[in-house]
Structure formats: structure tokens, C-alpha cells
Design goal:
about 80 residues, four-stranded mixed beta sheet, 1 helix
Length: about 80
């Protein structure tokens, strides 16, 4: 099982990853029963009762317009 380093406080857990593939793998790990992660001190920590999950995603990507949208007036 892959280890993910995370900031471990009593209630708040923050995990930082930089690759999209790692994010997908992490979601699978968190969805498993009682996942085990490593904290910032390399302690093995087993998680239980995971709730109130917030996922924050930032990414860079090249883009191109496939279809140009037209602004429509707001209807109030």
C-alpha cells in the first residue's frame, strides 16, 4: 500500500499531493476500510470514522476554446 504523508492534528487532516494519478489513488485509499497513512513524523496512523471530507484542487492546464459562448442578458 502506498504511503501518503499528511499533516496530522487531532481533528484536521491535510494531505498534499502533486500528481493527478496520486489523487485518484488517494481517493481509493481513503474509501477503503480504516486506511493507514503516514504523518509528518513518519508515524503510521490508521484513520477511522472519516467524515466531512473537503477536496481542494488546483491545477495548471493548456486550454483552447472549442465553442465560443455568447453572453446572454440576465433575466430577473
Amino acid at each position: 500500500m502506498k504511503k501518503y504523508n499528511f499533516f496530522n492534528s487531532r481533528h484536521l487532516k491535510q494531505i498534499y499531493i502533486e500528481e493527478l494519478e496520486e489523487a485518484q489513488s488517494l481517493l481509493k485509499v481513503l474509501n477503503s476500510k480504516n486506511p493507514i497513512l503516514t504523518d509528518e513524523l513518519d508515524n503510521l496512523v490508521q484513520l477511522s470514522n472519516i467524515h466531512d471530507v473537503i477536496i481542494h484542487v488546483e491545477f495548471k492546464a493548456d486550454t483552447k476554446i472549442l465553442k465560443e459562448g455568447k453572453k446572454k442578458p440576465a433575466i430577473i
